[in-house]
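Section 3.1: Structural characterization of target chains.
Under the original work plan, the team committed to producing a structural model for every single-chain target entering the pipeline before any wet-lab resources were allocated. The record below documents one such target. The sequence was received from the expression subgroup and is listed exactly as submitted; it comprises 1298 residues.
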Amino acid sequence: MGLEVIQALLEIPGGSNSSHATYYDLIRETERLNDATTPVGLFGDLLFQRAPWDEVIFMIRQLPPTPNASTVREALVVKTRDVVRCIQRHSRFHERRQVDTSGVVAANPDMVIPENLDFMEILAELSDQLYAFTSNDLSPIANIYPSGYAVQYEDLIVDFHALITGTDKEPPELEKDNTLIYLLLQLIHIDKVGGKDKLLPQDYASDEHLFRLLIGLYNEDQVNSKDGFYLRDLALQCAITHQQGYIRDRAMMKFRHPKLAVIWPFYSQICYNVQSYFATKYKNNVQDTTSFSKLPMHENVKVAMESQIRQNIVAGCLFVYLVPNNNGKKVELDPSGMFVQGGVVNYKLLDILNVDAKHRLIGLLYKMMLDGDSGPRIHADPPVNVQFVAPSVIDVMYKLFMNSPCSVDQVMKALLDRLRRYDRLPKTSEIMPPEATRWLFTVLQLVNFRLIRSLKFTPGCPHLLHYMKFALSLTKHRALHNLVETCNHSALSVQTSHKFLRSLVDNKRERPYWFEESEALARRAVMTVARVVKLRGQSDAPAGVTTEILQILHKHPIVWTEEILSFFPEPVREFYRTQEQSGASKGIPGAVTEQEVTTLLEETSVHNVLLVPKGTEPNTHLLMHYSNIAHHPFFLCVFWEIIVIHQQISETMLEDIRAVMLQFPPSHMSTYTQQLVDYALWKLDPKNPNPTVSMEFVVNMFEDLVWKYQLLSIEHILLSLMTGHPARSGDLGLQILIQMTIHSSEISSRISHWTSIGISPRPWEEDSYYEKLQSYLARYPEYFGFEAHEVRMGTNPINPPLDIPLLANYNNVLLRLLNIFDMIISRFIEYGMTDTLVTFLETFGCLYLYHATPLGFVRDTLLYYYESPTLRDPRVAKALLKLLDFRQVELSPVLTDYAQELNRSEEPFDENYVSEICRKLAVSMDPKECGYKSDPSLPERHYREISNPAIQGLYVAVIEVLACPITKEKFMEQLLNVVLGNRTAGVSQSASGGSFTSPSISSRVVPEPRVVHAAGLLLATLPAEFMDIYFVEVDAFTRTDETLLQASTISAKSTPASRAAAVAAAAQKRSKGRSSWSETATNGSATAGSNGGMKSDFGEDAEQEFLHFNRTTAQDMLLSTLFSSYAFNRNNFRSNMPNSFLTFFHAVAHYSSPDILLRVMKCLENWRRGTCLPPPTGSSLLNYNNSIIKFNNKFDPLRDDSISAVHREPNGDDNVGEITDDGENTRKPNQSLRTDVQLLFICALIGPLVHRFEKVQIGGTSGQFLVALVELTAMVTDQMEAASRPGLCTLEHVIDFM
């Protein structure tokens, strides 16, 4: 028995449910936990969670040497079954609509479309996955597939047929459903399946076995139901039409397959007419740039049907529509002359196209637009030289990347590979080809402003910095460099995995420092490392990896203020403490002093050209002096001193200023700006003996330099004002920052215009984004070559000449500022600037509708700064919540009302609120739910910030917990009441076995197993303070739970007097309740399987049994129930708090970091010493008498007062002991561990953690937990009487476990 018994009896959450773990780490974890979760289950979970293609491939590589080759296919079939069931649950297939199939089909046939098309997003997702596994040759990475493919069409159709017909051993799992044919239709377009002389043509030429199976799947009633859908329900007719050239003797087809005689004539005519209509309406007018734009849904369905019927036709038409060749006419360019003006395609059409059509379209677009070294290739006559890809083409590629991530994965890889290659060009070539510059600018905009959210949870995300490491230092084009900096900020902001830490120390980085030229980016990287370590830990990263990372971020030591350090995790904080103790310089690196600036101005004549009237002196000496890079850091400070002297910016010198600044490497501008800001702050600082300017003057000059003359970047200025270096004038910097953001008329006017032009916060829905962006830029142009003044003055030509012009598809300062605003919010929290923070959030909250990852930002902020008093202010919590678009995130209505001031009370945040949080998370984690959205107004899942339903559910749940206005103690009380079923609901049993609600009779509300597991995941994700409270409950529950004592053998240390008094009390209670109990038992409603629980009536010899320490039948039944499966107990009305507590603890332990092992060891040590865990410092647990669970109240069906009375003191006093000087609680003997069942309960608690204890050294050895357990067992058994034979069986389980 032993460990095998424990594993068999206890319900352990499977690794596949670990939504916050990295996908391909689960296989090893699951192998260690139990064998119940099969590889099929693991792959099914990967498919459900929208795992990126690379992670699925990695899992295939991790399969054992002799696996079942059908593993992936079986997982896909299981997901198909779940998807079809989900669609059937939400459809009215059994409600018939009136259909006349005897009439003539119109040339432009009407399309049957259901009212609700929400199911199409999960159907499109499954189609994409099936297509990818069927079409991709996996032989280079795995030799387990004889054919090289993980899924074969002929195997899949047999599996689908088995779902509706059943097998000899299993009944049918599905009704016939045309969805199965629709899914197979996506695969017929694959060449190896439906191509000439391939699988299907061979089948038609022989016995038509596969064709017969396909027809057998058809449900003729579905198309005529109220939720019929031609695109799905005519999939069989489309498949036959697509393959008609290979079908032999088509005239006799209806006789070979009689079912076709009924379904073929009318609906096949619809397919033929759709083809004719498409050719006339769309193919012949493909040069019309409005033909495919803003189509109604019935037209979209016709185009999608055409993509199913005829191969490549739709993809080819859409390509020509997007990139017109004009058939011999001159190609029309946009007004700027940079790209070919094509049409616009709405996302609703792209989403429902056949997967093969999507695959071919994005392949054509990439090959012709982005795959060449000489720019876009336009096949036009006469030839045309086009410099950029049209924004509408980039938009279509973005939508296809989002809605078909698996099937177009190879295109994404090709794009990123080319990005890496172009990133290295500045290192190998002195001159960057203009085509490469344009390509980089186009693709980096696509990545930064559109694809970054979808890349967040991919295996490539931790390595994003590697795609831009050389461009960050060596790019010479200033607009491109500005975008590269923005991309680096974005890449750092989306990191969530500890794999990012290993990526930073990768030996292939080829540079001594990641951000040698930019202190601001290095500081952003430190904050990212701190966030990852604090929220995710270091996992299996090598020891000392954090120290190594922090040493290679910047060439100078980075110093932080105490306010910022206090929020760092211990490894990061310890590094900077050690750095400080080692005597590292605390000064500002590279700071320019007043003396140096005075010397340059007064003792040299270099700057005279800037001080005298224009034209008096040439700028030759000035340019020559600053041609030396060693002189660059001083120029902006000298410029500032001249501004101070003149008390304004003299426009006569701006031409010379520009000429000098164009000699600065773009990568150094961040540092030079930092030096200027440090110098200006020192001139303003009261500690300066000779302050010369006012804050108003500094703010006005900075605003002019940024907005009017655009000589400095607003991003650089703001980052320089909030570095967090203690030697800098931090208070002054933040005051100026507030003036330049909250009180800036320049930013506010830009935001007002941005919102007025009506750009949708859902970019996939915005078909006019480029036109609206150009409208904004026309009013607020942005310049990167310091030419703003020359352009405004009409200077022509501008000298020195400008860089090559670049096309802004998405790029603008408001969107670039969002990354900086994230850091500003963090600074305000760190410095406790609550009022300012609230004002800032309210001012700029509207911009966060366009943030790439607002849900992740709010969740990370609430977690990282949880201990901050600032976040406890309800105004801050509400303002943070309002950064989210409530139309795109499924937050609790209670919380949204609270955030919008519709409800200001805490009363709605009760156990029902917590229960709903756990229920929603459980649903989002359940593969059988398929991620089906509950609200039709929510975006399609593939366009959301997080497409993985489990991770999105977890992020939402964390926000709903941390942003609600209740204390952690109150939340934990409510959570434990929910998972332990310690809530009430009125239920009365009817004579027929049914139930009806009655407020007078209460029953426990026992949650589903998936809700308990979801609650465990949620608790493991919350800050450590919640876990501190939980382990106080673990300690208290194990010691004092009376249900555990009821199933136990009586302690030998109890006295005869106490036992006699207890028996008398039990007899008295039993006599009072005998009549009602007997009546209930007579009616048969209190049996072991009833709703009344498992109470037993004791006979006349009960007292003698107690006095002789014999365990009763009720105790034996109770003991078995404590360690049974939670689901079994729940289904048989035998749920009890210890069993619920075990299940919940295992869920918490499975989803937790290794830190939980230290907590468990602390409990073991305390139990061995007879002490208990003290409440956390500052906790209100003392108000709950050191625990918040009201143990075994009247709603526990297994509690028997007559048994538990034996274990109480005669006076009924449940004394909890006293708090000692060292803060521990020493309980009286009756409150310490003393029974065999408590020992077995502890073994059950730690059973799933044994494999983790073996790999962690605690107390200098990995076996310390076993030593503590053995000593604890010896202590407890020493108190038990050796003759207590009923207890020996329980002790045997304990000893076998050890």
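The chain has 64 helices and seven strands.
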